[in-house]
Input
Amino acid sequence: MKYDFNIIIKRTNRLKTISLKIKNQQVVISAPKFVLDNEIDSIIEKKINWIKNKLALDEANLSIIRRYENGDKFLYLGSEYSLNIKKSNEDNVYIDKNNIIVEVINHINKDNIKNNIKNWYIKESKKYIIKTNSYYEILIGDSAKKIVFGEYKSKWGSCNSKKTISYDWRIIMAPLEVIHYLIIHELCHIKQPNHSRNFWSHVEKYMSDYKVQKKWLKLNSHKLYL
Output
C-alpha cells in the first residue's frame, strides 16, 4: 500500500509487538520478523490520523531554527519576544517592551549569546517557580522537601517518593496558567503518586480548567526550547 510519507520497517527477533515512532519526517516501524506486511498495513491504516498529526508536529519542530540573530523569536510566559543583541561592556539580559535584549561583550559568538539567554531563562524560572510553588504548598497543604531544576527529554516535572519535585526550567516559556498547572500537578503527586481518577480530582480541586492547560502543553511542548 502506498502512502504520502516515508516508511522504514525494521524487523527483529527481539520484539514481540509492533511499535511506531516518527523521526525526521519518517515513520519508523519496528516489528517481529513473523509479522506479515498486510498486518503492518492494517496497523498503519488504524493509526493514520495519529501518524499525520505526529508528522505535522515533527515538521513544525524541524522548521523552528535558532540562529541567535536579531529578530529571532523567543517565548517567555507565553508571549513572543524578538531577540535584540547589543554589544556591551558586560553581559546582561532583560525584556524591554516586545524585545529580549541581550547585552554581551562578545556579540559575534553565537554560543555566548545562547548561554546568556539560557542562564537568564534558568534564573527567571527558578525565581518564579519557587515563589509560585510556595504559594500552592500553602493552598494544597503539602510541601516538597526539595525542588530541583533541569532539562529533561520526556517530562516537564516529576515528584518522587522522597517529595523531591523536579521542574524543567524551560517551562518558564509557557503561559502562566500552564506553569501553575504543572506546579499543582506535581504537588498533588505528594498525596497521589499516580494518575488515578482520585489524582485528577485532586488537581481539579485547585484548577478547574486543568484539561485546557494540559492540552496546551501537549500540543505546544515543541515550542519550549532553546
Summary: The chain has a mean pLDDT of 91. The radius of gyration is 22 Å. The first helix runs from residue 37 to 46. Residues 6-63 form one domain.
